Amino acid sequence: MASIVFGVRGLQRPSAALPGTETSSLAEFWSEFAAARTLPLAAITLFELSRPTTDVVRPLLVIAGLVQAGDAVIGVRRGNRPMTIAPAAMAAVHLFTAHRREARRETSPVGS
């Protein structure tokens, strides 16, 4: 829960980590990247803790996909094509793989 609070706070005011400093473009950039990693990780972790599961690979693929999607959004906001295209492609790969794992799990016989 603390990571969620710090991730959101960093997005609201990136200079909060260093009191007495002003927010810079670089601080905003790094706080966006930190939040893109922290918030999906915390959300999926909380979700997975709320239910019994034996497949740890699928949640990790979802987390990786969401992180990459966050990176792509940052690339779009900054007008940086390589920082948009590569993470967007990796997000698609991770999320598609997670989806396929779930589909395969639902169609396989119990105990496989």
Description of the molecule:
This protein is mostly helical and 112 residues long. It has one domain. 75% of the residues lie in helices and 0% in strands. The protein has helices at residues 2-12, 25-49, 57-77, 81-107. The protein is flat. The mean pLDDT is 81.
* β-sheet strand percentage: under 5%
- Summed over residues and divided by their number, the pLDDT gives a mean of 81
Count of strand segments: 0
The portion of residues assigned to helices is over 70%
Number of helices: 4
For the sheet with most strands, the description reads:
none
* Total of domains: 1
Helix/strand structural class: mainly alpha
Terminal-residue CA separation: 35 Å
- The radius of gyration over CA amounts to 17 Å
Query: What order do the helices and strands follow?
Result: HHHH
Query: What would you call the shape?
Result: flat
Low-confidence parts lasting 5 or more residues at pLDDT below 50? none
Keywords:
single chain, 112 residues, mainly alpha, flat
Task: Show the helix and strand layout.
Blueprint: H1 2-12, H2 25-49, H3 57-77, H4 81-107
